[in-house]
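WARN no homologs supplied; continuing
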Amino acid sequence: MAAWLDQVKADAELRATATGLRGFSLAEPDELSLIALGDQFSESEAPAPGTMYRIEED
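OK structure emitted
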C-alpha cells in the first residue's frame, strides 16, 4: 500500500487513513497489500459484527 500511496501522491489525510487501518489487519500500512485490502472491503457484509462508532476530535 505504501508504494501505491507514493504513486498516487496521496495527501496527508489519505495517508492517515491508511495508517489508521493498521489495527484492522495484522500488517503495517507499509506492508499491507492493496489486494487484501480490496478483498476485505469488497464483501457485502460488514467485516466485523456489531455497531461501528467514531470518536470525535476536538
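Residues 2-42 form one domain.
OK
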